[in-house]
Amino acid sequence: MSTNRTSPPQVYEPEVEEGFEWALPLDGKHALLFGGFDGTPRAGAWSPVPMYLLRSDEGGPRRRADLPWLGSHVLILRDEAIAEVGPILADHGELLPLECADAGLVVLNVTRVVDALDEERSDIVRFSSGRIMDIKKATFRGELLTGPAVFKIPQMPFGPLYFTSDTVELIRATGRHRGVTFRPA
Q1: Taking CA 72 as the corner, what is the angle to CA 30 and CA 112, rounded to the nearest 5 degrees?
Q2: Do residues 105 and 51 lie in contact, with contact meaning Cβ atoms separated by under 8 Å?
Q3: Which residues are bridge partners to 105 per DSSP?
Q4: What is the Cβ-side half-sphere exposure of residue 98, based on CA atoms within 13 angstroms?
């Protein structure tokens, strides 16, 4: 007996590209705010968070980023990337304004949560409570991921963003993705 399963699309996670700027909150308490992005819409009560661009560190100057890094759980867009990458992402969440003296910045709050993780076929590390601690290799159910998609999974609502290959190709085609690379989940 054969099982007719839809082949899952390739799914990617964002990853920092070495040597590029980072976008960081001026006040550390705001880092917790971004860590709380769990798929819940926030635009109605949103106030722009004061940010700065980390342009140098002990290794020297950092290059200008279109997508300055903050973490795999959010995506920050800068100036031109807002105009070119923003429309690709708009159907998958909210582009919330940030306050930065050096650049126009927005943060993507992904509001699309899809229960697409195939836990049986994924390599998962769990806490003793059974809750997921880490996903070493994720396998997704393809029938739930058609076309361009950016999403979070309910098993790890504070975890990384996931991008289908269609979305990654659209972002790369803009040429406005410096600072972030995408690795297979």
Answers
A1: 90
A2: yes
A3: 78, 98
A4: 33
Query: Cβ atoms within 10 A of the Cβ of 158, count?
Result: 12
The CA angle 34-111-84, to the nearest 5 degrees, is 85
Domain ranges of the chain: 13-114+145-184
Provide the 3-class DSSP secondary structure of residue 164: strand
Contact call for residues 4 and 142 (beta carbons, < 8 A): no
Amino acid code (one letter) for 72:
S
Six token digits for residue 60: 């020297």
User: In terms of pTM, does the model score above 0.85?
Assistant: yes
- CA–CA–CA angle 46, 51, 55 (5° rounding): 155
Tally of CB atoms within 10 A around 87? 12
Which has the minimum average pLDDT: 52-61, 87-96, 171-180?
Answer: 52-61
* pLDDT score of 67 more than 60: yes
